[in-house]
Amino acid sequence: MTDVPVTAGEAPGGDAPAVARRRALNPTVSRYLHAFRTPRGITGAVLLLLLAAAALLAPVLFPGGYDQQGSDALAGISAQHIFGTDEFGRDLFVRSIYGLRIDLSLILTAVPLSMAIGTVLGLTGALSERLGSGTQRLLDVIIGFPGLILGICLVSILGPGWLAIFLTILISGLPTAGRLARGAWLGQQGREYVLAARVLGVSRPQLLVRHVLPNAMDAAVVNCAVWMVVGVYIEAGLSIVGLGVQPPTPSLGVLLNSGLRFVTQSPTYILGPALLLLLLAVGFSLLSDALNEAVNRR
Amino acid sequence: MTRFLVRKMPSLMFVLLASSVVAFALPRLAPGDVAVTLAGQDPTPAAVAAIRQQLGLNRSPVLQYFDWIVGVLHGNLGQSYVLHRSVASVIGDRIESTVELALAAALLVVVFGTTLGVLAGSTKRRWARATLDLVNSFFIAVPSFLIGLVLILVFGVLHRWLPVIGEVSVLDNPSFGIQYLILPAIALALAPAAVVARLLQTEMLSARNEDYVDLAVSKGASPSRITTRHVLRNSLGTAVVAVGLQIGHLLAGAVIIEAIFARNGLGQLAVSSVQTRDFTVLQVLILGVVFVAVLCQIFTEIGLASLDPRIRLGDQR
Questions:
Q1: pLDDT > 70? residue A1
Q2: In whole angstroms, how large is the CA radius of gyration of chain B?
Q3: What is the complex's ipTM, to 2 decimals?
Q4: Which residues pair with B85 in a beta bridge?
Q5: Nearest CB neighbour to A241, from listed B23, B149, B255
Q6: Given A152, A157, A285, which is nearest B270 (Cβ)?
Q7: Whole-prediction pTM value?
């Protein structure tokens, strides 16, 4: 993102101090960075960094892996097992951290890819109006498959596992990203500078890249953070109904699923995984709020 | 109104058509061969060919699609090769549970959503608005399954006030049935209700800044009359749309809630058909969900158009 040449200062309407503004950092980047100067942004970022570090370092911190069985099954919370143990006596904290790894590996790949593809699809309208509305009809079909239904279709084709969840997150993010990008295009379409550029003979693809894409960027970045949360929920939802990654591999959703089966014997089972899931969601929510504020700050 | 519907129909029809193609294509995209599975262990090629002939699997996909869709439109949903029963009877057994859950949840969405929305949109006290905002944000952000888990822990495990696993049909035994229904319906309804409330509130706040409200104030209309006649009336459209759109989500959300509360509804049926690769059942379920979602969308549009003549008469788009 750092090397995107952006127009905030060049767009007509941005006035004289454009030169001065450009001296330190690319204006777009510094605008996004402002998100990390607000309390919400800092809290979200620190929280996410901690979670990501724990997930990344899991093999170092817990070299025994997530499948090490102990003697006491379904134990409650104790100093030794801070999240308790599962039905095979495996430490739930270790399993939750390894589960976090799977969740992060899913959303950090699927969501940005989804936003990128969705944005490109949404901007096709700038190349040809017919192409644009055709793409929107296709995206409408995706919206027609609400909630987990899309995931159920994909799992029935691919079988349960990482790939099916990855594709579910990727595809379900497309319509929103596409609409945001199309909205940005429709909003800029009639602006004087776009008309001016067209009169000057700027080609449509070039117009798209130079003028429309930067305007679609803000919404896409905020949306990306929002969809990280949705992605986590999709994984958890699919796993809770039993169509997620297959045991013994843990994911946060898988742990909730098996925790539910023992909810009366060991009510603390689901608390740990639920807590991590919530922290992940809160982290990304705070971040998206902060980004949204930073982007709309004028 | 008819012209309005005629204008809206093509895109909705396209969604239905496309989803039926997707549903039809599922078993053909999945690995494995239905005929081989049905022929049992160590089938002879002749047996497999016979079954394929019998099911019409050796004809062109386009013909097979038309056969299937014409059958579905005539109410012939096909045969489940896993359960050895007709798809209609399999679905018939399960549909009551899901309909009960969805109706109860929809009722809660309307009640909670409009109450919270109107309260947040009409109060002038800052702390009240801040509290309602916080409550709404919380329920929008927290997914239904986490709410379900908390409800189970609090009301089923900690206090044992309500049953949390299984179900009793409301039609057979109303008092027990409703006890089984309360927690899942709440878990399913809170998030959509918060979305409805948030939209209604935003709409009411922006309606309050309109000129016609200033005019009503200057004419000396009472605050409550302004709220109901001028602000609420002009904001209801949003609420109708929001409720309509959320109902499709309720059905899809029921899949997770049924799993959590161990209810034997259509969602659980869909999950088990994926696991047993019972595609004939799955196809009908997917088509059904999309059909209901599209129906909700149509009714939403109708409701919206009858509330707001600008939409009904507008010729743009």
A1: no
A2: 24
A3: 0.83
A4: B80
A5: B255
A6: A152
A7: 0.85
